[in-house]
Design goal:
- This protein has about 130 residues and is an alpha+beta fold.
- The chain has one domain: Elongation Factor Tu (Ef-tu), domain 3 (Beta Barrel), CATH 2.40.30.
- Helices cover about 20% and strands about 35% of the residues.
- The chain is built from three helices and seven strands.
- It has helices at about 20-25, 70-75, 110-120; strands at about 1-10, 15-20, 35, 50, 55, 60-65, 80-90.
- A seven-stranded antiparallel beta sheet has the order 4-3-7-1-2-6-5.
- A hairpin with a 2-residue loop joins β1 and β2.
- The longest helix is centred in the C-terminal third of the chain and has 12 residues, at about 110-120.
- This is FAD-binding FR-type domain-containing protein.
- GO terms for molecular function: oxidoreductase activity.
- InterPro entries: FAD-bd_FR_type, FNR_nucleotide-bd, PyrK_electron_transfer, Riboflavin_synthase-like_b-brl.
Length: about 130
């Protein structure tokens, strides 16, 4: 479970949600994702995989486009709402110490790239 810290529209149909989830924040790495249950209503039982755009200070953020019923429900989450999520899931980018990473992404697919960019800056790795 996580609680919604903020849920803001950052562009037309694009949202950034910050969720308080200390365990996921502590153990996630760039390239990983969470599976989110948008609603407890049985009509919307499918979880949505969402890349983690940032993590730290007990929080994670996701960036998504509200295009279907599930993500439209997510776009209406209010501060303090409780969200059922599972994560962190998936593999993450490994050792990039001996390379010069080039980061390419676009649209809402930029979320994991933003997370990697932040980690590379923190590790003083040029990219």
């Amino acid at each position: 479970m996580a609680s919604v810290i903020s849920n803001n529209k950052i562009s037309e149909g694009i949202y950034k949600t910050i969720l308080c989830s200390p365990d996921i924040s502590a153990y996630s790495h760039p390239g990983q994702f969470v599976n989110i249950l948008p609603s407890y209503n049985w009509e919307y039982v499918m979880r949505r995989p969402m890349s983690i755009a940032s993590q730290g200070d007990d929080n994670i953020s996701i960036i998504y486009k509200a295009i279907g019923e599930g993500t439209r429900i997510m776009a209406n989450w209010e501060k303090g709402s409780q969200v059922d999520l599972i994560g962190p899931l998936g593999n993450y980018w490994g050792n990039y110490q001996s390379s010069y990473p080039i980061l390419i992404g676009g649209g809402v697919g930029i979320a994991p790239i933003l997370n990697l960019h932040t980690q590379l800056k923190k590790d003083y790795i040029q990219h």
